[in-house]
Specification:
2 domains; globular; mainly alpha; three-stranded antiparallel β-sheet; single chain; about 425 residues; 7 strands; about 5% strand
Length: about 425
């Protein structure tokens, strides 16, 4: 333990840390700025959606901590950005997106090899593509990282970017199961991009004058995300690197985080995640994760990926970088404030059973499935029974100190973004700013 921390703990009368602090040793992949700048345009361009109305930035906007400020987002069939996004009166969505939009900070670090709340996308050197995905043999090759491969999936989701059944060529291809090949969804989108002169010139400068594959598009987007939202210069990082003191409340909160509160049992490492999966009795709202032919709104988390009953209701531990700006919280965005989700962690089953649906941030009108699971006693009991977290008692001053430490995980440069939102994009479609 660092001598300075021992002195600070002694001065404030705090117990020593129960576990070791992380090392500031994250490794980031090298980046090509030509790819980064091209990826910036693609990230904000609705051209990658079936109807040309939804961009990556629609659900991952810098104004909302690289998320959207909603418990459950609205992709295709919505108008606006962030909590102000509403249903399109003429073409509303078929349902809400089933999970909260995750933040994008530090995904360019090599330690992030598993993505999505259930981890269904993972690095796997044994696969021909190097990545394990639900697509199996349909998975294309050529992706530079698991972060790049992630960009393949929103464009295939009718609720996110593809669009409603038969309303555009991309949606038609997806619903018919045509993902690869010349008539597949990815090829349709790649041709769209290639037909825009500014994009064609940008790809000529990065990959050369060959056909643009969707993996090329995804690689550019990944380069931008990795550059724009690298977040490793918070007050906590400064303390780890050279001992720059945290303010008193944050120092006390750090002692709690790595001690009595037990947070670091799951939120470990420099970016406060063990990259593992845990069941913590999070409330389930919204449509859940059901196939189109299923009639339920459960979300059993990791179980859908592994088939192992022990993974029921387990979800990936999120990083806590910039966590004060990434509300709402939980895989379904059930909690609107950081304080409430921390209190849930201190008493998971108690907070699950007392959950008030009114706190969810959902754009009206309500869907029939928005809160139906939380009204089913058997389903709530099953979520509670899977809980792995023991209750922890903190005083109100201790809770305030813990929240102060979480605020010390914020990196202002990453919150602002390094390139920012472009004024225009090559397709000429509107940019959400």
């Amino acid at each position: 333990m660092k001598p300075l921390l021992i002195l600070c703990l002694a001065l404030f009368g705090l117990p020593l840390l129960a576990g070791p602090l992380p090392a500031p040793d994250a490794v980031f992949r090298p980046l090509d700025m030509a790819e980064v700048r091209l990826g910036q345009l693609l990230f904000y361009d609705p051209v990658l959606s079936g109807a040309g109305t939804v961009a990556c930035a629609t659900c991952h906007h810098p104004r909302f901590g690289t998320s959207d400020g909603l418990s459950l987002g609205i992709g295709d069939g919505g108008v606006g950005v962030g909590p102000a996004r509403v249903f399109d009166a003429v073409n509303p969505p078929e349902q809400r997106i089933g999970r909260n939009s995750p933040a994008l900070f530090n995904l360019g670090a090599t330690e992030f090899t598993t993505l999505f709340h259930d981890g269904r996308l993972e690095t796997d050197p044994s696969r021909p593509s190097g990545i394990r995905t639900p697509l199996g043999a349909d998975m294309e090759r050529g992706f530079s990282s698991v972060l790049a491969a992630q960009a393949m999936f929103p464009v295939l989701s009718g609720d996110e970017m593809a669009g409603h059944y038969s309303e555009n060529p991309v949606a038609q291809a997806v619903r018919q199961g045509m993902l690869t090949g010349p008539d597949g969804a990815w090829s349709i989108l790649s041709r769209r991009v290639a037909e825009i002169p500014a994009y064609r010139a940008g790809f000529d400068a990065t990959i050369g004058p060959r056909d643009i594959a969707f993996s090329d598009i995804a690689n550019m987007i990944a380069a931008f995300v990795a550059f724009e939202w690298r977040a490793d210069n918070s007050p906590f990082d400064a303390w780890l690197r050279d001992g720059t003191p945290l303010h008193a409340a944050a120092a006390r909160g750090m002692a709690l985080f790595y001690g009595k509160a037990g947070c670091s049992g799951c939120h470990s490492g420099q970016f406060q995640t063990d990259h593992q999966f845990h069941a913590i009795a999070m409330p389930q709202i919204g449509p859940g994760k059901a196939a189109r032919f299923e009639r339920h709104n459960r979300d059993v988390g990791r179980l859908r990926v592994t088939g192992d009953a022990r993974d029921t209701y387990r979800f990936r531990t999120p990083s806590l970088r910039n966590v004060t700006r990434t509300a709402p919280y939980g895989h379904s965005g059930a909690y609107p404030t950081l304080e409430r989700v921390v209190r849930h962690h201190l008493d998971p089953v108690g907070w699950l059973n007392a959950y008030d649906p009114a706190q969810a941030i959902l754009t009206p009108p309500a869907f029939e499935t928005d809160f139906s699971l939380m009204q089913d006693r058997d389903e709530v009991a099953a979520i509670a029974a899977a809980n792995e977290l023991a209750p922890v008692e903190l005083s109100e001053p201790e809770l305030a100190d813990l929240l102060a430490f979480l605020a010390a995980l914020s990196d202002p440069a990453s919150l602002k973004g390094r390139l920012g939102v472009p004024d225009t994009v090559p397709s000429g479609l509107p940019v959400s700013d």
